[in-house]
Design goal:
383 residues; alpha/beta; Rossmann fold; 13 strands; 43% helix
Length: 383
């Protein structure tokens, strides 16, 4: 028994890009919050000044701020690289775990050069996608190949990207695995009351939680919502989130005088309370890794209508717990929302099947066990 408690903690440094509390950061938070404090000691690198920093402070975890770290590639990234290297070199870490494309590239190389025994990267969606030029796609694939040489294991959050990485010779099969994001099923019944929002008890509420960005295809989704509420007075929409396209979305709704039917409340931290208000969840993204917002909606028993893209098509089984819609078929998107809105029994059955999928495939326990095993196995091999 004494030997167990005498074992040193495994020191793990997570490297993030933005100090937000969105999907990428919440995956990391789930790992750190649920890990054994007797076994692991965590620290985090990210840009400063954001909600992630307060969260880390509340968790009593060390944070290394990197002023000047931004999403866009720029010459200052050379300085950022050396700052990451310095932290890795001086921190005595056993494992460096990187997230996001930019910090994944800089962090993997800096960590390996600094002599970190184990380097892990989680792909939360490759930086290349079908909406980019071939030149840009090939450039990003080359950068991923280079970074892969400096990494012991790459984790894909879906099967599709693992298969693509192997097929296109970006990452060899023995150095990439899939770990699905996981979610807990919470039985809380606390929700936002529809009367507070001016909605009727018989209204069907379609909800979505996302960043208002090009990736999330939010403008096309807002335009579809406008078409739908103009056809059916009993359907209402709530789009939670913020981002660079929020003002444009608000303008579209205001121009049609539909602010009482299409709500844009902004960002929120009490996501579950809002999800329990919804009858249907929709996410019409252009590309994803494995959407935490869809997982959260599934965990409260909602039917899902989502774009038929990688990641989404592993969460939503078409006709089982929801519907998958091709990204260019906004007509079918509107039809499925209108149709599902009129069929309570189908919505209810699909919602129950969402819960089954979470329990069997996307549970928080499976997710945590997979990362704990990965950390321990690689540390044991390298130590």
């Amino acid at each position: 028994m004494k030997e167990i408690f005498d074992k040193p903690k495994i020191k793990i440094l997570h490297i993030q890009l933005l100090p937000l509390l969105s999907g990428v950061q919440n995956v990391m938070i789930d790992i750190m919050e649920n890990a054994s404090p007797d076994q692991f000691e965590f620290s985090v690198i990210s840009a400063p000044h954001g909600p992630l920093i307060m969260k880390l402070k509340n968790m009593d975890l060390k944070h290394y701020p990197l002023p000047g770290l931004i999403r866009e590639i720029n010459l200052y990234d050379i300085i950022i690289f050396f700052k990451i290297y310095k932290v890795c070199r001086s921190g005595g870490f056993d494992i460096v775990h990187t997230h996001s494309s930019k910090t994944g590239f800089l962090g993997r190389i800096a960590a390996r050069i600094a002599g970190i025994p184990v380097v892990i990267h989680t792909i939360h969606g490759f930086p290349f996608n079908p909406f980019q030029s071939k030149v840009k796609q090939n450039l990003y694939k080359t950068l991923e190949r280079i970074a892969g040489y400096f990494c012991d294991m790459t984790v894909s959050v879906n099967r599709s990207e693992r298969e693509l990485a192997i097929k296109d010779h970006i990452i060899p099969s023995e150095k990439i695995m899939t770990i699905y994001n996981g979610i807990d099923i919470v039985n809380s019944r606390t929700c936002i009351h529809r009367e507070e929002l001016g909605f009727d008890k018989k209204d069907i509420i379609i909800g979505s939680i996302c960043r208002f960005s090009e990736q999330k295809n939010i403008i096309n989704m807002i335009k579809t919502a406008i078409e739908i509420v103009e056809k059916n007075n009993k359907i209402k929409f709530v789009f939670l989130g913020d981002g660079e396209l929020w003002s444009e979305a608000e303008k579209l709704v205001q121009e049609k005088n539909l602010t009482s039917k299409i709500l844009l409340p902004g960002w929120t931290t009490n996501v579950r309370n809002w999800l329990l208000l919804f009858d249907i969840y929709v996410l019409y993204s252009r590309w994803e890794g494995l959407s935490l917002s869809i997982l959260e909606a599934m965990s409260v028993g909602l039917p899902i209508i989502a774009s038929d893209i990688k990641g989404n098509n592993e969460l939503v089984q078409n006709g089982y717990n929801g519907f998958l819609i091709k990204i260019d078929d906004k007509t079918l998107l509107a039809q499925k929302i209108l149709s599902l809105s009129t069929h309570y029994k189908i919505r209810n059955e699909m919602g129950k099947k969402s819960l089954v999928l979470v329990k069997n495939i996307f549970s928080l326990k499976l997710f945590l066990d997979s990362y704990n095993n990965l950390y321990n196995n690689l540390y044991r091999v390298k130590s």
